[in-house]
C-alpha cells in the first residue's frame, strides 16, 4: 500500500511540474526554449540529477509509455505528404534568380546528411565510444520536426522557398529515420525480431486500415456519430493506434513504429482539423508532458560526469551534429546568402524525440549503457536549446520586404474588373487574362487595366505563359466547366489558393473536394438580398467604403502576449475577429495577441493603415 501511495505521490509531483513549466516559460518570456525541452529540464531538477523527488512506479511507467506512443503517433500525423508533390510554380528570389525545386534540393541535402552521418559514426566506433555504426548514424542524421516547425512558424518562413526546403528535409529525415529504426530493431533485436520480413505484415495492416478508413470516411452516418457522446472519429483513431501498436509488438518491432505508422495512416486520410486539435490537446496537454518530464527524471548527470569517456563523448557528439547538418546546408549557397545557409544548418541540428527513441531502444537491447543513453539524450536537449537561438540570431525576418501577392484573373469581365480596381496595389499584383476583350468593355478595359490576351483557355497553353506562377488564381469565365478544368489544373500546378465560379451543385462539390474555393453569382445574389432584409447593418459594413473589413497580420513581437485591454492603439478601429492557426477567436479585453495572428478589423481607412503599420512593419 505504501508503494502504491508513493507512486501516486510521484505522479502528482510530475503532473504539477508539467502544469507549471509552460506558465514559467510564459512568465519569464523564455520564447526560445521549446516547451518539451523545458519539461526535460524540470525533470532533471525534480529527478535523480536534482532533488530526487520522484520514484518511478507503475502509474508513471504506464503513463510515460503511453505518452511516448502518443508522441510518435502525433509525429506521424504532423507529416504533410502534399509537400512531397512540390510546388511547380517558380518563386523569384530577392537576388532576381529563380528559386530551386524544393523536393530535389531537400532530398539531396538529406542524402548528404545520411552519408556524412555514416562517416562520422565510423569515427566514433573507431574511437571506441560506441560499437554500433547503424545506431549512431540514426542518432546523428535525425532532425526534430517538433522543434523545426514552430521555429519556422515564428520566423514566418514556412511559405518561403527556403522554409519549404528546411521543412521537407525535416519531414524526409523524420520518416526515413523511423523506418530505419524499425529495420535496426529487426536486425539487432535478437531471434524474436530477426525476421525482418515480418515488418511487411505491419505495413500491410497499415495499408489495409487506410483503405477501410477511406471507404467509410465520407459516409453520412460517420459524420452523425462524430458528434455528442459518441465521437466515433476519435474512437477510430485510438483503435488504429492500438491495433498497429499491438501488431508492431507481435512481429518483434518497437511499439513506437506502430504508433508512428498509425499517425501516417491518419494523416493520409486528411482528418477533420477539429479532431486533430482534440488529439493534440489530449496528447500535449496530458500524456506527452509526463513522458518528457520522466525523461529528465531518469537522467543522472552527476554519474555522467564520473565517466571520462562519456564526458569526452558529449562535446564531440555535438560537434558531429553540427558538421552533419552545416556542410549539407552549403548546397543552398547557390541561391541564398551565407546568413540564410548557416541559419538553415543550425536549425537542422535540433533533434529530440527520435534520439530519445533510438537511445531508449539501444539501451533496452543492451547495445549501449544507461549512462550512454543519458548522454545522448542530454546532447539532444542541448541541441534543442542552442539551435533555435542561433537560428533566430542569423535569420532576420526584418530584412524581408512585405510579400505582394500575385493574383491571376482568368476572364476579364464585369465581375472581375471592378474587383481588380479595388484591390490594394501595395498588397496585390494583379494579372488579367482574356481571349478577346469584349467590344463593349474595350475602351474602359484598355484605359484602366493591363489585360493579357491569350489564344484560348487551354490549361497547358496558360501554363506556358506562366499564368499559374501566382499565389492566387481566380477562374471566372462564363463557361463553368472551363472554370473547373482550369481550377483543378491550377491546384495540380501547386497554386496555393484557387477560386472558381461554378453554378451547378455537381461542379461545386467536385471543386471543393479538391481544395478549390467556389463562388456562385446566384448564391451570392440570394445571400446579399437575404442579408439586406435580415441584417442591413452587416451589408453596410461589407459595402460601405468607410466601414470595410480589413485583415492585418500581427508581426510585431513588441505586442506578442499583450492583452487587448492593454493595447496602446486608440484610433477609430474595432477588432472584429482573430484567426490563429485553424482557430477563430472573438476578441475581448482578456484576449492575448500572438505573433502570426490574422486580425479582422473595421474602421476608417486612415486609422486602419496606421494600425497595419504598427502591427505588420514595426519591430
TrEMBL record:
Tree of life domain: Bacteria
Main localization category: membrane
Subcellular location per the Swiss-Prot or TrEMBL entry: Membrane
Molecular function via GO: antiporter activity; monoatomic cation transmembrane transporter activity
One matching Pfam family: Na_H_Exchanger
Membrane topology: Multi-pass membrane protein
Keywords: Antiport, Ion transport, Membrane, Transmembrane, Transmembrane helix, Transport
GO cellular component, as recorded: membrane
Name the record gives this protein: Sodium:proton antiporter
Amino acid at each position: 500500500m505504501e508503494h502504491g501511495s508513493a507512486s501516486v505521490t510521484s505522479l502528482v509531483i510530475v503532473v504539477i511540474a508539467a502544469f507549471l513549466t509552460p506558465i514559467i516559460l510564459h512568465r519569464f518570456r523564455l520564447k526560445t526554449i521549446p516547451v518539451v525541452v523545458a519539461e526535460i529540464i524540470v525533470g532533471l531538477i525534480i529527478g535523480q540529477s536534482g532533488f530526487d523527488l520522484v520514484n518511478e512506479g507503475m502509474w508513471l511507467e504506464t503513463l510515460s509509455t503511453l505518452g511516448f506512443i502518443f508522441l510518435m503517433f502525433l509525429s506521424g500525423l504532423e507529416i504533410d505528404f502534399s509537400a512531397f508533390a512540390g510546388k511547380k510554380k517558380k518563386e523569384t528570389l530577392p537576388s532576381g534568380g529563380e528559386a530551386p525545386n524544393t523536393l530535389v534540393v531537400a532530398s539531396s541535402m538529406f542524402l548528404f546528411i545520411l552519408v556524412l552521418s555514416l562517416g562520422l559514426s565510423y569515427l566514433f566506433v573507431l574511437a571506441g565510444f560506441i560499437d554500433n555504426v547503424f545506431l549512431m548514424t540514426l542518432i546523428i542524421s535525425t532532425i526534430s520536426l517538433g522543434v523545426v516547425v514552430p521555429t519556422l512558424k515564428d520566423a514566418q518562413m514556412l511559405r518561403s522557398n527556403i522554409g519549404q526546403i528546411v521543412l521537407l528535409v525535416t519531414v524526409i529525415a523524420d520518416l526515413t529515420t523511423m523506418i530505419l529504426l524499425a529495420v535496426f530493431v529487426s536486425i539487432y533485436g535478437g531471434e524474436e525480431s530477426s525476421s525482418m520480413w515480418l515488418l511487411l505484415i505491419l505495413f500491410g495492416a497499415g495499408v489495409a486500415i487506410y483503405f477501410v478508413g477511406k471507404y467509410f470516411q465520407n459516409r453520412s452516418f460517420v459524420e452523425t456519430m462524430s458528434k455528442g457522446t459518441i465521437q466515433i472519429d476519435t474512437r477510430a483513431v485510438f483503435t488504429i493506434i492500438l491495433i498497429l501498436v499491438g501488431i508492431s509488438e507481435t512481429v518483434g518491432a518497437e511499439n513506437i513504429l506502430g504508433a508512428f505508422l498509425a499517425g501516417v495512416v491518419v494523416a493520409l486520410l486528411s482528418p477533420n482539423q477539429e479532431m486533430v486539435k482534440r488529439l493534440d490537446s489530449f496528447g500535449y496537454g496530458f500524456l506527452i508532458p509526463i513522458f518528457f518530464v520522466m525523461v529528465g527524471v531518469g537522467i543522472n548527470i552527476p554519474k555522467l560526469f564520473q565517466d571520462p569517456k562519456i564526458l569526452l563523448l558529449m562535446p564531440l557528439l555535438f560537434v558531429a551534429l553540427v558538421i552533419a547538418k552545416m556542410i549539407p546546408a552549403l548546397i543552398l549557397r547557390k541561391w541564398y546568402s551565407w546568413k540564410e545557409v548557416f541559419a538553415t544548418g543550425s536549425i537542422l541540428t535540433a533533434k529530440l524525440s527520435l534520439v530519445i527513441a533510438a537511445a531508449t531502444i539501444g539501451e533496452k537491447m543492451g547495445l549501449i549503457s544507461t549512462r550512454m543513453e543519458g548522454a545522448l539524450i542530454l546532447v539532444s536537449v542541448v541541441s534543442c536549446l542552442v539551435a533555435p537561438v542561433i537560428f533566430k540570431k542569423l535569420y532576420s525576418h526584418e530584412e524581408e520586404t512585405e510579400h505582394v501577392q500575385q493574383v491571376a484573373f482568368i476572364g476579364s469581365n464585369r465581375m472581375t474588373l471592378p474587383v481588380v480596381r479595388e484591390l490594394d496595389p501595395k498588397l496585390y499584383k494583379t494579372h488579367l487574362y482574356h481571349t478577346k476583350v469584349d467590344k463593349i468593355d474595350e475602351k474602359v478595359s484598355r484605359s484602366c487595366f493591363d489585360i493579357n490576351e491569350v489564344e484560348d483557355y487551354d490549361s497547358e497553353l496558360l501554363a506556358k505563359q506562366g499564368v499559374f506562377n501566382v499565389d492566387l488564381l481566380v477562374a471566372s469565365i462564363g463557361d463553368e466547366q472551363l472554370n473547373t478544368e482550369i481550377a483543378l489544373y491550377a491546384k495540380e500546378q501547386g497554386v496555393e489558393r484557387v477560386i472558381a465560379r461554378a453554378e451547378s451543385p455537381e461542379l461545386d462539390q467536385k471543386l471543393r473536394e479538391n481544395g478549390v474555393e467556389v463562388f456562385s453569382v446566384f448564391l451570392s445574389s440570394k445571400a446579399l438580398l437575404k442579408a439586406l432584409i435580415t441584417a442591413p447593418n452587416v451589408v453596410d459594413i461589407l459595402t460601405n467604403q468607410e466601414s470595410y473589413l480589413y485583415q492585418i497580420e500581427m508581426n510585431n513581437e513588441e505586442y506578442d502576449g499583450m492583452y487587448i485591454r492593454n493595447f496602446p492603439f486608440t484610433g477609430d478601429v474595432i477588432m472584429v475577429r482573430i484567426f490563429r492557426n485553424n482557430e477563430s477567436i472573438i476578441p475581448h479585453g482578456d484576449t492575448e495577441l500572438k505573433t502570426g495572428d490574422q486580425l479582422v478589423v473595421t474602421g476608417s481607412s486612415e486609422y486602419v493603415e496606421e494600425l497595419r503599420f504598427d502591427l505588420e512593419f514595426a519591430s
